[in-house]
From TrEMBL:
<feature type="binding site">
    <location>
        <position position="163"/>
    </location>
    <ligand>
        <name>substrate</name>
    </ligand>
</feature>
<keyword id="KW-0808">Transferase</keyword>
<keyword id="KW-0486">Methionine biosynthesis</keyword>
<keyword id="KW-0028">Amino-acid biosynthesis</keyword>
<feature type="active site">
    <location>
        <position position="237"/>
    </location>
</feature>
<comment type="function">
    <text>Transfers an acetyl group from acetyl-CoA to L-homoserine, forming acetyl-L-homoserine.</text>
</comment>
<dbReference type="InterPro" id="IPR029062">
    <property type="entry name" value="Class_I_gatase-like"/>
</dbReference>
<dbReference type="InterPro" id="IPR005697">
    <property type="entry name" value="HST_MetA"/>
</dbReference>
<dbReference type="InterPro" id="IPR033752">
    <property type="entry name" value="MetA_family"/>
</dbReference>
<dbReference type="GO" id="GO:0005737">
    <property type="term" value="C:cytoplasm"/>
</dbReference>
<feature type="site" description="Important for substrate specificity">
    <location>
        <position position="192"/>
    </location>
</feature>
<feature type="site" description="Important for acyl-CoA specificity">
    <location>
        <position position="111"/>
    </location>
</feature>
<dbReference type="GO" id="GO:0004414">
    <property type="term" value="F:homoserine O-acetyltransferase activity"/>
</dbReference>
<feature type="binding site">
    <location>
        <position position="249"/>
    </location>
    <ligand>
        <name>substrate</name>
    </ligand>
</feature>
<comment type="pathway">
    <text>Amino-acid biosynthesis; L-methionine biosynthesis via de novo pathway; O-acetyl-L-homoserine from L-homoserine: step 1/1.</text>
</comment>
<keyword id="KW-0012">Acyltransferase</keyword>
<dbReference type="GO" id="GO:0008899">
    <property type="term" value="F:homoserine O-succinyltransferase activity"/>
</dbReference>
Length: 306
């Protein structure tokens, strides 16, 4: 079964052109099955780009997935048209009485600010608290992972001496974990961040397990023992050119930025980036949907609770 999204959403045409099976709402309504209800709290500035990236990997599954896009009310994106936001997005107070099998909280370019200084921090705290009883499994990405670890467990983030920027080699700590099932012993994943969380802080929390880490990039995948909360500190969802676009943007602004590590062929920005993480991204997102969500979420979605 495919992902189910409105046919007017830009991602619908993008994914169809990539020969990815997507289904519009009208056709989905004729099928007598219960789709997985997945909400995406999109905190990225370029929301359409983030939609395309995440929905691409949620489409790689035999399960039917129904998507609800959420934006914050306390901060309005300046990089996405109001028409798009009004047509495809919900505010939290419009969905807070609903339950979801899964929730994805994306990254956001606010990591160098203290959490409490972020405009929508109080709203995000409300959403993360709500997710404990209204969502079966929540996947937090990059800054979203740092925010979740801080809110739920008090784990702080630390400023890095230089931006952790590039594609880094990771290892699996627990090959029997459901989220890492099918991954190679070592695999690549992109990172783009100025802050980090420390392994020793995570290990102090008995409820958490470090599922994957990198000698260069630090802890990568963290999960609770029951898979109700997953934290990924990098960006497996990134496209081939996402790091290149960030590098070009910062260069044009005159910012100090290093060439992304292990990304361009021969470290030459004029050459095509080497995409080493696509297979691993498909596996991780499919594992989250299947093992962390579908295999364990109640058939009656109203039975979801803490």
């Amino acid at each position: 079964m495919p992902i189910t999204i409105p046919s007017e959403l830009p991602a619908y045409k993008v994914l169809r052109d990539e020969n990815i099976f997507v289904m519009n709402n009208e056709r989905a309504n004729t099928q007598d099955i219960r789709p997985l209800k997945i909400a995406v709290l999109n905190l990225m500035p370029k929301k359409i780009q983030a939609e395309n990236q995440i929905l691409r990997y949620l489409s790689n599954t035999p399960l039917q997935v129904e998507i609800t896009l959420i934006q914050t009310k306390s901060y309005t994106s300046q990089n996405t048209s109001a028409e798009h936001l009004n047509k495809f997005y919900n505010y939290f107070d419009e969905v807070c009485n609903k339950k979801f099998d899964g929730l994805i909280i994306t990254g956001a370019p606010v990591e160098q600010m203290e959490f409490e200084e972020v405009t929508y921090w109080n709203e995000l705290k409300e959403i993360m608290e709500w997710s404990r009883s209204n969502v079966f499994s929540t996947l937090h990405i990059c800054w979203g992972a740092q925010a979740g670890l801080y809110y739920h467990y008090g784990i702080p983030k630390y400023q890095l001496e230089e931006k952790r920027f590039g594609v880094f080699l990771h290892k699996i700590n627990n090959e029997r974990a459901e989220l890492t099932r099918g991954l190679s012993d070592s695999f690549y994943a992109p990172h783009s961040r100025h802050t980090t969380v420390l392994k020793e802080d995570v290990m102090k929390v008995k409820e958490l397990e470090i599922l994957s880490e990198s000698d260069e990039a630090g802890v990568f995948m963290i999960g609770t023992k029951d898979n109700r909360k997953i934290f990924i500190t990098g960006h497996l969802e990134y496209d081939r050119d996402t790091l290149k676009d960030e590098y070009d943007r910062d260069k044009e602004k005159g910012l100090a930025i290093n060439i992304p590590r292990n990304y361009f062929t021969d470290d030459n920005p004029e050459l095509k980036p080497d995409m080493r993480w696509r297979g691993s991204a498909h596996i991780v997102f499919a594992n989250w949907l299947n093992y962390c969500v579908y295999q364990n979420t109640p058939f009656n979605i109203e039975d979801i609770k803490k």
